[in-house]
Amino acid sequence: MEFMTRSPEETEAVGAGLAQQLKSGTVIAYRGDLGAGKTAFTRGLARGLGYTGLVTSPTYTIVQEYLGGRLPLFHFDMYRLASSDDLWDIGWEDYLDRGGICAVEWSENVEDAMEGAIFVTIEKTGEQSRRITVEGVEEFAAACL
Question: Number of C-alpha atoms within 13 angstroms, CB side, residue 110?
């Protein structure tokens, strides 16, 4: 399914809507260029899961953990990983076993580990506007759009 957004807040609303139907162990594999809105989408996921704290990009930490919502959210940045072998080295299986949601930026770098994931592609269509394509999930209503 496809959504068109005109602001970061609308991009967050799509993420919040998706979060409403996510189950424990779900992997979200992002595709999109630098600055496309992957972190904004993740802020929406966190909000939709009931997390109320600050959500930032995991660029320099590889993974950010957001606890305290309906399910834990683990936000990964795979930009600096060369392959899925590196992913296993950082404890990917441990995160999968913790029963949360794994949201993976730069999933292309570890694509062979993304089997069964929900794929979210975010494309810039203007300064603030985005085309968001969600594959691998039933229909959902984007919160507040």
Answer: 26
Query: Of the candidates 49, 101, 93, which has an alpha carbon nearest to the alpha carbon of residue 70?
Result: 49
pTM value > 0.70: yes
Which residues neighbour 71 within 8 Å (Cβ) at sequence distance 6 or greater? 22, 24, 49, 99, 100, 101
Domains and CATH numbers, the chain: 2-135 (3.40.50.300)
CB 115 within 8 Å of CB 86:
no
Quick check: 26 and 98 in contact, CB under 8 A? no
Residues 42-58: tens digit of each pLDDT: 999 999 999 999 888 77
With a CB cutoff of 8 Å and minimum separation 6, the contacts of 24 are 71, 99, 100, 101
Q: Which H or E run contains 6?
A: none
- Tell which phi-psi region holds residue 112, choosing left (phi > 0), alpha (psi between -120 and 50) or beta: alpha
* Residue that the structure tokens 């292309």 belong to: 108
pLDDT value of position 141:
60
DSSP per residue, 30-72:
EE--TTSSHHHHHHHHHHHTT--S-----TTTSEEEE-SSSS-
